[in-house]
Batch of 2 targets.
Target 1
Amino acid sequence: MNLTLKVWRQPNSETKGKIETYKIKDVSPDMSFLEMMDVLNEQLMSEKIDPIAFDHDCREGICGMCSMFINGEAHGPDRLVTTCQLHMRKFKDGDTITIEPFRAKAFPVIKDLAVDRSAFDRIQQAGGFVSINTSGNTQDANAIPIDKHDADKAFDSATCIGCGACVATCKNASAMLFVSAKVSQYALLPQGKVEATDRVLNMVNQMDEEGFGNCTNTGACEVECPKGISLENIARMNREYLYASLKG
Amino acid sequence: MAKLESKIPNGPVAEKWTKHKGKINLVSPANKRLIDVIVVGTGLAGASASATLAELGYNVKTFCFQDSPRRAHSIAAQGGINAAKNYQGDGDSTYRLFYDTIKGGDYRSREANVHRLAEVSTNIIDQCVAQGVPFARDYGGLLDNRSFGGVLVSRTFYAKGQTGQQLLLGAYSAMNRQIGRGKIQMFNRHEMMDIVVIDGKARGIITRNLVNGNIERHGAHAVVIASGGYGNVFFLSTNAMGSNVSATWKIHKKGAYFANPCFTQIHPTCIPVSGDHQSKLTLMSESLRNDGRIWVPKKLEDVKAIREGSLKPTEIKEEDRDYYLERRYPAFGNLVPRDVASRAAKERCDAGFGVNKTGEAVYLDFASAITRYGKEQAHVKGLNEDDPILVKKLGQQVVRAKYGNLFQMYEKIVDQNPYETPMMIYPAVHYTMGGVWVDYNLMTTIPGCYAIGEANFSDHGANRLGASALMQGLADGYFVLPYTIGDYLADDIRTGPIDTNHPEFEKAEAAVNAQIEGFLSNHGKNSVDFYHRKLGKIMWDKCGMSRNEKGLRQAIKEINELREDFYKNVNVPGKSNEFNEQLAKAGRVADFLELGELFARDALERTESCGGHFREESQTPEGEALRDDKNFTFVSAWESKGNPSKAKLHKEDLKYEEIEVRTRSYK
């Protein structure tokens, strides 16, 4: 199929960006979206145009490095997939596709479609851990039985890949879904309960410092999350936060 | 020339590690504060090593090329992690894990290292659970296990099909705690360009900041390479797009021997190639072989009808299906090791039984597992076990709970529903057992330079068993390196900070700049990927699942020509002082073009078949791999002499004190 692509081009964080239009021919429906971008880049290079920068690595939907806002949706029109797992069979011959970076004050553009998401790392550094040393001299793993339902829920929260689709989708650029997924994982497990108070306060504090917006419960983040992280996590984090604030 | 001393401690194999730990030098807590350690890579090995070294008190500088340490490709490991916990009471033990790993590696790994790995395996599970890693549990609240290929016990711990993700995020969280404390300085989007060796010791690295192109110098008292494997030399592999050999290749060129480069793992269950545009391949976890049965049609006319689309696999009768693994290997069936399963798939496809358009695919079928689980659930719930629709529904629920994300991934890529029709799979490059040669302390032949995880060669011999890569990465990083590195650093407590103005730093930096300038001013006609794809094709056709002398000689010649052409005609657009992915890729492909040749030379040298290395000249009448223990019970360790065609082969003889070397049989 033949497509028209409108792509955000921005040489670096200091220069203003703009949309450029490119045509691409003979796209196979079996290609992934990023493979289509590879083909486009080969074409641009042969025309002496600077190839489009975009983040990607594992190309199997788990590393969280790929981003892209495609036709107004984070990771494009398909549900429960990242851009690398989006396939061209979701588009039709003759379509025009608009491709932009994930936009948020806390995610400055590095170049074209690549953005800086290190704010996410700093939030994790503020409290996304259990404070035990890695000496291996802990108790036997089966000495801590955990209710299967809780363990499964903790796992579901822990599957967040940190891509930032929730932030890009949210009209307030809120990172609540991302932060609450980690807070929930540990809040649901006995290992995480010991320092639950400090964790939620520190992580929320860092989130605010990074310039993410507030949550107004529209639920758009949940819809666009490639891993199906649920809004329940935000509710749980709010409870944890309230409890921690009262406890002081 | 560096000497090849494995430094394996004396005494019975089961006591070596304990005794060794008791004897090696330690660095006092006060002195650890004076010592800097660089870690390159943040996968399981690099992240866990960084965290533990920082906890111990060293000043750690950690580097990754991705935008966050959490992106390292360990994240994509699916199936599980082995540990000799014997929670299932099925006869597992440290010894059995040790034995299975040696046998699985086809008797080409180092006994002492493997035993140590089996010993610390149980600590890993304890550690990860304490960190809050959400492993799968049963209804009693205890940890669940599954089976992997090449073993007869259930010792694999898992978190659905995302075990690697959960373990890596655990190690990442431990790192984050230390970054927050200031004990780890983290450098995201930084690529290691070279190692700096001063007076024979590793003293730092040169890096390139991938965002602004700045070339930086970093000094340290020791350098730990945890940059993973080199499967991307095949262009198409299950590795991430950015996975590369450059860090290990740079240290090789500065004096680290490279061991067993030809030992590559071709994983039997990957999604087949769909077209020329393909940029990478996707694995379907080995855990699927617990419940999936592998088959092709028995009749060629059925194959033809399937390819034409006039017959569906579900319409083929049971007696017309060839469950070839169950047929050839009754004892292990669908759970034979990966090398065996891959070759068997190739054998059937080469004979014309491949089930997709390209003729390179076999079926992985869950229908019987769905029925089996469905009946069990119907029985538990007191429902009608003979109602096929109900049984299918209940069975699908069980399969979804076990492998849901893998089935979803398959459906998104192939656009077929694997609950209703069998998956199509074919082998693909997945892991490299070969890597940097290290001694028992995980130190390379450059004093002060260590290699851990997939980057080294030591634990998996000629074939790695499933769920052992995660085990080795974390074992090296959490529990082995942090001890052994102290033995070396104990002599460095008076050294003081490393001076990055030393002429060796200047020299290394100048060489890095010269290479970058060379690429950017070349203005050739072909893109970097053009060369990478060509190299990949040579490797896959001539150094892939089966190899022979003629093909390998040709591969060496073709790679040489390709490399020459690359430097003449490669086109790298853009500038050096910007985010320039093509430039980064060019450096990586340049190193793959050298490694590829050494790989082929190693494969040519080893005229036996063993594990994943199959030489057509060396097989049994039934087509099984035929080892030559008399002549090849050694590790090949290559010393760089500039050009890979001049690399010099050294041999480390492997001595088996504990385990009797036997023909590997899974029949």
Target 2
Amino acid sequence: MENNELIPHLFRTEYSKMVAVLCKAFGIQHISIAEDVVSDTFLLAVEMWGQKGLPKNPVAWLYTVAKNKSRDILRRQNIFDKKVKPALPKEEADNNELHIDLSEKNITDSQLQMIFAICHPSISPEAQIGLALNILCGFGAEEIADAFLSNKETIYKRLARAKDKLKENNVALELPSQTEIDNRLDVVLRTMYLLFNEGYYSASQNVTLRKDLCLEAMRLTYSLIENESTNTPSVNALMSIMCFHASRFEARMDSNGEIILYEDQDAELWSTELIQKGKYYLEQSSHCDKNKVSKYHIEAAIAFYHTNQADTLDKWESILQLYNRLLQIEYSPIAALNRTYALSKANGKEEAIIEAEKLRLDDNHWYHLLLANLYKNIDNNKTAAHLKKALQLSKTDAERNFIEKKLKEINLINA
Amino acid sequence: MKEFLLIFRRDFVNKEEQPSPEQIQKMMKPWQDWMGSLAAQNKLASSGNRLASDGRVVKSDKIVTDGPYVEIKEAVGGYIVVKANDLDEAAELAKGCPVLNIGGNVEVRGLVGMD
């Protein structure tokens, strides 16, 4: 990897771990110091590595520099003596030395604890997701604003308020009790899934970035599976969804970055390894009470049916019923659109058109793409009209290219 | 958006005439598709419940009787709660209910809350 790719890559993979480990060492109330130290460390890396070339072990370099910087800052600000030291076990305090444990285990543990600290009930769900993207994944305010369709200033303020809350409430960096874990896990999972989707459906053309985001989400979710107290059926179901989706990563875009729809994908390019993993976690997730079936279970089952491209009525009937259940658990526009597509395959296009017209998602370009698809060969003028609306509403070049191609095809038929 | 209770009534089905599991499976599809349709429009507030065929009625003199529907043509079979702007829209939503295809009817009532 070149320098100009390596540093952004390391920033995404190491930033959150470094912040977590530093916070573990000197308390989450000093999180802004931890963030400053880590940001400074990366700035220094950009400067030094550019001039002197890469160090032998770039990751170790980052941790060592961050460790030294923290010591300096804490000493300079007298925080160590006044605040950190009294809180340390006597033995460590006597050493008069801030101990930062850089073992693999402590890094993993710290990050898991950080996940739960962020999902503390004192922080609003919206702010939690923002914080998770910021602290756990190293997203800047601007990227988060993009994901939330909000502006940078709003997000910046929201993050600052949330960090103040962490301080005010003395949120400890530790794994909460089992009941607390169960309560907070919902938010944790929602955040992990949002992160994964941010990578999978992102407007960004940067394929490396998008894959990194998906892998980060999978890595964080895996850390929940590895820990006995967080290894619940829902976590396994979410992991299963991620594996099934990720299995199609290579097949869903061509070499020009253009979208390839599921039905047109070359199944040879699907990762059999990830499909196997998806099946494994789906099986793991099934060890639960019938009344504890979560939306993740249902989505994992839907994703499972999609690992077989065959266009059978049974398959689409099963998918339709799963979407019917999913929507009763939680409404989302994308699930409503996907349900209507499954309906067209299971019950026929005519019924699906009537149902689609009821959805009234007129501002959603996927909605118009769905209607364009349903009207094809039934009323091609309507198909063209919906494609034009979709084109106006689309957000990325890849989508625009894709829609324009479809529009050309339909105009040829209509001409 | 307000909430409305949809109450499904149909001829009472006694225990002996209960459908087989396979028949139930087949009967469930129109219901699941209809509820899925309401949910896809974000108009379903609660999936409600189906009611068992046997029950008791407790009268004001605290006498308990079986029933009530042994003699009643239109027994309550289940309910859901939908979201709609007004009674007319809620009634419009009720028109898709599969109970109408088996000679039943749907009662639509606004929820007013306790306070």
